[in-house]
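Follow-up to my post from last week.
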Amino acid sequence: MRNKTIVVGCGRLGASIASYASSQGEDVIVLDPKKDAFTKLSESFSGYTIACDATEIDELEDAGIRDARELILTTGDDNVNLYLAHLCLAKYNIPYIYVRFDDPEKGFLIQGMPIKAIYPFQLSRDRFSLLQQGDDGE
Amino acid sequence: MKIVIAGGSSQAEFITTMFKGKENQLIIINPDAAEADRILKRCRVPVYVGEPWRKYVLEEAGAYDADIFIALCDRDTDNYASCVLAQRVFNAKKCICLVSNPKNVELYRELGIDSPISSTYLLAETIRSESSVESLIRTLSLDNDKIKIIESVILSRHKIANKKIKEIGFPKYASIAAIYRSHQLIIPNGDIELKPRDTLLIVTATENQRKILNFVQAEAEKK
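User reply:
Got it. Predicted complex:
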């Protein structure tokens, strides 16, 4: 059944998204090649953690990619995120795909596709300009 | 031809030497400054230092409208991203993508990369065709391995030897395209008799290769 939220990459961003989604009652699976990475998850995280290389299609399938409703790609490598987004859209037609790109120009390569991008550096910069203008956003 | 060579060390150097000349415009991009310097010294061509999966790098290197874009970086995903960028944004006509994981060959092709190549994959293909030669069969793959042309020699112990084509009930999923008999080409029809030592050229879909070989090589029952 397509009801899983899969988070690829358990860095700061991945771990916090996974912890949040889990706290909202979603069925979360987090993938990362390094087992140690999972220590970043919050204590109340109640989903699954799988140590695997998501760019290996067999490992991705074993992790249950076919059951994913939401896929969040947060590894620190833009090219890995781009590839997985294209692959999971073309092959598994996952309804909601979110991808992290450090390089905003990667956006050209998902244009016209049902893939949504998060640009952490751009967000921080935008926040910085707001703060600088004296608008603390409150 | 306009050829862009992205990444790679000795492979990049080899391909550069091969295509260097007046008729080709080469653009060489390498993410590693030391590697770029080496290629520059060995091949005496300008090398642009930068990551080929970044838009501004391809822009600055002038990698527009390449006839061939070759990605030779170490990591498969880097090559994938470079090829996608070259194809969609820089209008490359054909992309060749080196992959180290042979399983990625099929996947990358499905995702729209023209020619993913893997040395392990090629090695396995070579072993497979070499091992077929031993059993008197050679095969040729067409259209990304979807179509096979199989060469099979008839032996006297085969069931179909010394029979007319119309009598053997040749399966519908394959076709005998030609017969070689003592250096002569015969275009088959139902009345041609298959003789031992004839070589059949059979065309079939790859998934039926095994089945058709089993059919033509079935041995006659001993009386």
